[in-house]
Specification:
This protein has about 550 residues and is of the alpha+beta class. The protein folds into 3 domains: about 140 residues, Periplasmic binding protein-like II (D-Maltodextrin-Binding Protein, domain 2); about 130 residues, Dipeptide-binding Protein, domain 1 (Alpha-Beta Complex); about 220 residues, Roll (Dipeptide-binding Protein, domain 3). Helices cover about 30% and strands about 20% of the residues. The strands form 6 sheets. Strands 13-17-12-16-14-15 form a 6-stranded mixed β-sheet. It starts with a helix and ends with a strand. The relative contact order is 0.14.
Length: about 550
């Protein structure tokens, strides 16, 4: 602990300015508030809290506290549990789901939640005017893709129907083994139609805001906090433990640690909010938790922009990267080098191997593409968002490409919201990217690179790839499905390469188990806020190895 304390004091001095500025903003913001029962440092400032349009993990964590879907996540293993639907029936062919919505499911403002709310909300996601990047999650519903892409103008052709107020019927294109997982994701949660029709794009500012989840949205102060309060009308309010919860935006790892060390925060659960300088010491602490995680770190090529329209250039740049150096020098939390996109451990799937590290072949391919020794290579950028780890990785990549290929890549650091907008608009040459699985199936990583998927963000389109993904998801046999998905992933990581995988994430969080309970490590890092308890006095817990009770 002495070594840690000295390192922490050094780190605080080194980053005193940024920490002091954020701490001042934090204290100033606190003047209106008493401390919440639970304070969570949540990562970047949310882009939005509208379930239909959000894409960031930090946004989704908040959205799932205020909006619930037909299913919800099991806090121990992230499998789907009954949510607003108390039960469902599935047809023998796996294509028709009939959901029975709880009779005690009501909006926080008292109106009953009905099957019609789901029909409206799902069609809103699919409406092209909404601009939902996650609309592809509803392509598994018959008629969903045609409506979203404009091939059909008839909303009634989408096979989601309210049979009555409490019965929802959904017909799928193919048997979809992960459909119940999708029903727990925020994109498929119901939103209040009457509020949206009254307030338009500003509907989230309505007070009281009708919500369907365990918590009400009390306040959202930019660069300060999102304050939540327990929803007494939530159907499972009896098992929702904290009354008031604050979600604090923060992207500076040293500041996050300071907030935690000084008791201003109870939990830090964003993977980027661990000071790299202190990582070796932090990993030895009991309140520092690591675990296997369904997340990949990679970068995207904008294949619509020269010279990245040439697959030889894309392969050359990927082959010139010493990925082992990235995880050993920069990330240092036990991340595994990646040659493929889908992380190890995903259910019923093993990825094929992609490209490795081969600078000689990289130089040969670059020369074949017309840039021997980097001569004549155009001015292009590598875009990343404002997190220290991303910046260090960007600098390392820049140096590797200069050393091995003789090319210069400009680095472009953007604030989170601007970064997301630029990526969606393909306003980049190369873009830092990551993907956290929305469910435990390879499809959550592979389907986003289909031509019409809003999360593609590369400009790459492949009819063969689209066909393989559709064919695979129509198969009931897991082995047969795996072989087809492997063919698709080979296109992605070896043959056409619109992306370059770098490494697989390790889940990282810190909280004191004697003070906070109800958090369970799982491959998806889903920790429903409703299940978390904060204890004023330290509680006993079971030693993981001996089973003995300890404080």
């Amino acid at each position: 602990m002495n070594g840690f304390g000295n390192a922490l004091r050094y780190c605080r001095r080194a980053f005193c300015f940024s920490s002091a500025v954020l701490f001042l903003a934090f204290v100033t913001g606190c003047s209106r508030y008493e401390r919440a029962d639970l304070v969570i440092v949540n990562g970047p400032e949310p882009e939005s809290l509208d379930p239909a349009i959000i894409t960031g993990q930090a946004d989704g964590r908040i959205a799932l506290t205020i909006f619930e879907g037909l299913t919800r996540y099991n806090e121990t293993n992230a499998t789907p549990l009954p949510g607003l639907a108390e039960r469902w029936d599935i047809s023998p062919d796996g294509r028709v789901y009939t959901f029975h919505i709880r009779t005690n499911a009501v909006w926080s403002t008292g109106q009953p939640i009905t099957a019609h709310d789901f029909v409206y909300s799902w069609l809103r996601v699919l409406n092209p005017l909404t601009g939902a990047d996650y609309a592809g999650q509803l392509y598994y519903v018959k008629g969903g893709e045609a409506f979203n892409t404009g091939k059909s103008k008839d909303a009634s052709s989408v096979a989601v129907k309210a049979l009555d107020d409490k019965t929802l019927r959904v017909e799928l294109v193919d048997p979809t083994p992960f459909f119940l997982d999708l029903c727990a994701f925020q994109t498929l949660a119901p939103v209040p139609r009457w509020t949206i029709e009254k307030h338009g794009d500003r509907w989230l500012m309505a007070r009281p805001l009708p919500v369907s989840g365990a918590y009400n949205l009390v306040d959202w102060r930019l660069n300060d906090r999102v304050r939540l309060r327990k929803n007494p009308l939530y159907w499972d309010a009896a098992n929702t433990y904290c009354d008031v919860v604050d979600m604090i935006p923060c992207t500076v790892a040293t500041t996050a640690l300071n907030l935690y060390e000084t008791g201003e925060a109870d939990i830090v659960w964003d993977k980027e909010l661990v000071p790299i300088e202190l990582l070796d010491l932090l990993r030895e602490r009991k309140d520092f938790h690591t675990y296997n995680y369904l997340g990949s770190y990679f970068f995207r090529y904008n294949v619509t922009k020269k010279p990245f329209d040439d697959v030889r250039v894309r392969k050359a740049m990927a082959l010139a990267i010493d990925k082992r150096r990235l995880v050993e020098k920069i990330t240092r939390a036990g991340e595994k080098v990646a040659s493929h996109l889908v992380p190890p451990g995903v259910a019923n799937y093993n990825s094929p191997e992609g490209l490795g590290y081969d600078p000689e072949l990289a130089r040969k391919l670059l020369a074949e593409a017309g840039f021997p020794g980097g001569q004549g290579f155009p001015r292009v950028d590598y875009m990343f968002n404002s997190v220290k780890t991303h910046e260090k990785i960007a600098v390392e990549l820049q140096e590797m490409w200069a050393r091995e290929l003789g090319i210069h890549i400009e680095l472009r650091n953007l604030e989170w919201k601007v970064f997301l907008q630029a990526q969606s608009r393909l306003e980049f040459g190369l873009s830092r990217s990551s993907w956290i699985g929305d469910y435990n199936d390879p499809n959550t990583f592979l389907d986003m690179f289909m031509s019409n998927n809003g999360n593609n963000r590369t400009g790459w389109k492949s009819e063969r790839y689209d066909s393989l993904i559709r064919e695979a998801n129509g198969k009931l046999d897991p082995k047969e499905r795996e072989k087809i998905l492997q063919q698709a992933e080979l296109l992605l990581i070896r043959e056409e390469l619109p992306i370059a995988p770098l490494f697989f994430y390790v889940g990282i969080e810190y909280y004191d188990e004697s003070k906070v309970s109800g958090i369970f490590s799982n491959i998806r890092a889903e920790h429903p806020v409703r299940t978390i308890r904060v204890h004023k006095e330290p509680v006993e817990r079971a030693d993981a190895n001996t089973g003995a009770r300890v404080n």
